[in-house]
Design goal:
heterotrimer; A alpha/beta (about 280); B mainly alpha (about 300); C alpha/beta (about 260); A: about 280 residues; alpha/beta; 4-stranded antiparallel beta sheet; globular; B: about 300 residues; mainly alpha; 2 domains; two-stranded antiparallel sheet
């Protein structure tokens, strides 16, 4: 039984002005989970996730991180356990070199120089940033900057990584790299929570989906269940990946009897359930 | 940093004051400014304060007005305390009471009170003006009387950018706090400012290409979508404002008996109470503000 | 960019594909004169827009023929209300206030923002903001509309809205649309002319059918094809179906599946 790292106990958040952004959310997040949090703009997904590292505090209810309530904890303290990678890396980057950027987090944690150095080296290796060590963060391409952003949180070794739209605005190659990195982070023992609109990320990489709509948590289950449910998807403006849509149409026509979340799955379904027409 | 920027901006509304064109209102505000600086007569200043408060009340801007005053009022009030113990006034000074180590002077009370009234009256009129005037209308009116289009544009964009850059700054602070950065001290300045600046530069770069792609910078006649039509009422208000200011100014310059600095007498108890209240208001304000800043 | 030779015809819906940094934006900025007039660098060769050489006209002149929107919706907005943002270009052209009112109403309707005339642009959603940017450029009645990754910073609902507007401009308003985009499924659905740029060179230039069937070429430069195309490529080989032209749209894929297979 894996350790529970984050608990939301009847969590509600009301912004000043009376806007209810999150209403009575209950959930538990364990070590090693790979989660996608989705919902439209205004659904409350970003508000929810900001409670996980203390950027927001509950208006009602509780949020418990590694056994302690967040209410009186500062973001800086919680950053040891929960790292938040912001969507726009430009909001983080300020140092003269990539290396200096990676050193910032661990230094803030008060680690020794050796420890800082070791972590930076590990991050450079993990994210394949060796060529860019001494480059100025603003001189490297945007996709690479996003990786530097992730790496600079990686050096803090949090138990949980929150990635805000990790693949938005990225091209195909970098997107694939990010998918791999997310899997590797989890394999190393971290919990990864992605707030995303990337359907392929949600269908092929994450293992659990938390769906928000109008401040309420309307689904908390695996991707297959979500992507099989047409009503759920349209109610929250989710458009499944093209291959999944194809499987829906074929299933509706009773041609196949399962849904496919990826091209490989579709291939398997075809192999198992269909045969090439003799009469051609 | 959060409470540091005052929520001063237009408050949408339909009041009589809202309906007046920007130029007459600007004129009145400027008139009040000039008069406040030309006299120390508490009655004249007091009359302007009353007038200003009256205008504020008929414009339906109370809640925003009070929010801003909540921050500015305590700061203005400290003038009374400081002046009363060290008047910015020519000697001789007449002591009228003792408050611990401090001596309260007659001229000090006068000076403090009038200084307060002066800033208060200017602030009230400035607030009423800003809160009842749409910036675009103001800029269009100024353009009509000769301000260059480019200045208008720069002012509009700047006005938009201020809240945006504030928001960006808050985001950057959140991002850096999420990396364990302590929120205060020199170590917090660079990681917080660089991203905001870079963001601003990138924004302006894309903005300038976007503008050029919409024919910005074309020579030739420019028209304006927004139009401010001055009605008879507006012209009348302008003229009344001009006359009132001119007459008051003349009176101030000519009538020496308006200088009450030596003739007004304050009772010692009243003076002490006044000074203590002023100091208390100011200190409470400082304590609340500092605790808010520490909390973030 | 190197050695670009390109012809775009009136009324085409052109999509430009390529990795970040491949040269899509550079190419697009050449289309309204920003390159070479506003950005430093060296341009050899010429770009003609409706017969006019972009070297000879400043961007603000070409703006009447070529409208352009960029990838960050908010960066393009400067005014205090939606109507004023749309009016920006018109003010610069000296349009009469009466005509302005009409044009503003018209373009706001085209992009679906009719009820929001007095709203502040900064209170709008990302998708709305981008549509406002489109409306603002549209007010000048350009014939060519260039869009540089307009959906990349927008949520899915906003994406759909923007893509629908782009399709409308091409199909209903008969404008030539040139769109740089990463989502290949969208490109396959709407474009009739696809250009693939890799490291500054055009490596593919044809119809979506032609381009997306070149799976190996695309894979080599790191680009993917629509999922249905990739899937059919796999089963075409593994099941030896002998399909000459792989489907690029979901409808084609569906009928092809029903056509080629039967239940076991």
């Amino acid at each position: 039984m894996e350790e529970v790292l984050i608990t939301c106990d009847n969590l509600s958040h009301v912004y000043s002005g009376g806007v209810v952004a999150v209403k009575e959310v209950n959930l538990k997040i364990k070590r090693g989970e790979l989660i996608g949090v989705i919902g439209q703009n205004g659904s409350g997904k970003t508000t929810l996730v900001k409670h996980f590292n203390g950027l927001l505090k509950p208006t009602y209810g509780k949020v418990i991180i590694k056994g302690e309530e967040t209410t009186n904890k500062r973001v800086q303290e919680l950053s040891r356990s929960v790292g938040y990678v912001f969507q726009n890396p430009n909001h983080q980057l300020f140092a003269k070199t990539v290396t200096a950027e990676l050193e910032f987090g661990p230094r803030n944690l008060g680690l020794s120089e050796e420890e800082v150095h070791e972590r930076v080296e590990k991050a450079i290796e993990f994210f394949n940033l060796d060529t860019y060590r001494n480059q100025h963060p603003y001189r490297i391409s945007f996709p690479l900057r996003k990786l530097v952003g992730m790496a600079s949180i990686y050096t803090m070794r949090p138990d949980v990584f929150i990635l805000d739209e990790p693949t938005t605005g990225q091209d195909n190659i970098t997107t694939r790299i990010v998918y791999q990195l997310i899997r590797r982070l989890r394999d190393e023992g971290s919990t990864v929570i992605c707030v995303a609109h990337d359907m392929i990320l949600l269908a092929e990489v994450v293992e659990r989906m938390i769906v928000m709509r109008d401040s309420v948590l309307i689904a908390d289950t695996d991707p297959k269940t979500v992507f099989s449910d047409r009503k759920l998807m349209s109610s929250t403006h989710l458009y499944p990946p093209q291959i999944t849509e194809l499987s829906h149409r074929l299933k509706d026509k009773n041609f196949i009897n399962t849904y496919a979340l990826s091209i490989d799955e579709m291939q398997k379904v075809t192999d198992q359930q269909l045969q090439v027409k003799r009469s051609k | 940093m959060r409470g540091a920027v005052l929520p001063i901006s237009m408050v949408p509304g339909n009041s009589v004051v809202h309906k007046i064109a920007p130029l007459p209102k600007l004129l009145w505000a400027v008139g009040v400014l000039i008069i406040s600086f030309s006299t120390r007569n508490p009655a004249i200043l007091g009359a302007m304060i009353v007038l200003g408060l009256f205008l504020a009340s008929i414009s339906n801007i109370w809640s925003s007005f009070l929010k801003v005053m909540g921050i500015l009022f305590p700061i203005m009030v400290i003038a009374i305390f400081l002046q009363s113990i060290a008047p910015a006034f020519p000697q001789p000074w007449t002591p009228i009471a003792q408050l611990g180590p401090f001596t309260i002077y007659q001229e000090g009370i006068y000076s403090g009170l009038t200084l307060f009234e002066r800033t208060f009256s200017m602030t009230i009129f400035a607030m009423v003006f800003i809160m009842t005037t749409h910036p675009s209308d103001l800029f269009v009116s100024l353009e009509k009387i000769g301000m260059p289009y480019v200045i208008n544009f720069i002012l509009t964009v700047t006005l938009q950018l201020i809240p945006i850059l504030q928001r960006e700054f808050a985001t950057v602070l959140s991002a850096q706090k999420s990396r364990g950065m302590k929120g205060t001290g020199f170590g917090a300045v660079l990681p917080s400012m660089v991203p905001v600046f870079v963001g601003a530069i990138e924004r302006v770069q894309q903005m300038s290409i976007s503008l050029e792609s919409r024919a910005f910078g074309s020579t030739g006649k420019k028209t304006s979508y927004r139009n401010v039509v001055m009605g008879v009422k507006d012209y009348v208000i302008m003229v009344v404002g001009l006359l009132a200011s001119a007459v008051t100014l003349y009176w101030i310059i000519v009538d020496k008996s308006l200088d009450w600095s030596r003739t007004m007498h304050f009772s010692p108890t009243l003076s002490v109470i006044l000074v203590i209240t002023a100091a208390l208001i100011f200190v409470t304000f400082i304590v609340i503000s500092v605790s808010k800043i520490i909390k973030t | 960019m190197q050695n670009i030779n390109l012809k775009i015809y009136e009324g085409e819906y052109v999509a430009i594909l390529g990795l970040n940094g491949a040269g899509k934006t550079t190419l697009q900025l050449c289309l309204n004169g920003v390159i070479p007039n506003m950005i430093m660098g060296e341009l050899t060769g010429d770009v003609f827009i409706k017969g006019l050489n972009t070297r000879d006209y400043p961007t603000r002149e070409l703006a009447k023929i070529v409208g352009m929107v960029f990838d960050n919706p908010e960066f393009q907005l400067t005014q205090t209300s939606v109507a004023e943002e749309v009016a920006l270009g018109l003010e610069n052209l000296g349009t009469s206030p009466h005509d302005m009112e009409e044009i503003i109403g018209e373009v706001l309707q085209t992009v679906g923002l009719s009820g929001l005339k007095d709203r502040s642009p900064f209170e709008l959603s990302g998708g709305q903001q981008q549509r406002l940017a489109i409306a603002s450029a549209l007010a000048m009645h350009p014939e060519i509309f260039v869009m540089d990754e307009p959906t990349s910073n927008v949520d899915p609902v906003g994406k759909e809205e923007i893509i629908a507007v782009a399709a409308k401009l091409n199909q209903e308003k008969h404008m030539t649309v040139i769109l740089a985009e990463h989502e290949v499924e969208v490109v396959a659905q709407y474009a009739d002319h696809v250009i693939v740029i890799d490291k500054g060179k055009i490596i593919l230039d044809g119809t979506p059918q032609q381009v997306f069937n070149q799976i190996d070429v695309l894979a080599k430069c790191g680009l993917r094809t629509p999922q249905v195309t990739e899937f059919f490529n796999q089963i075409n080989q593994s099941k030896k179906l002998g399909i000459k032209e792989l489907p690029i749209k979901i409808d084609e894929a569906e009928s092809l599946m029903l056509n080629q297979f039967e239940k076991k």
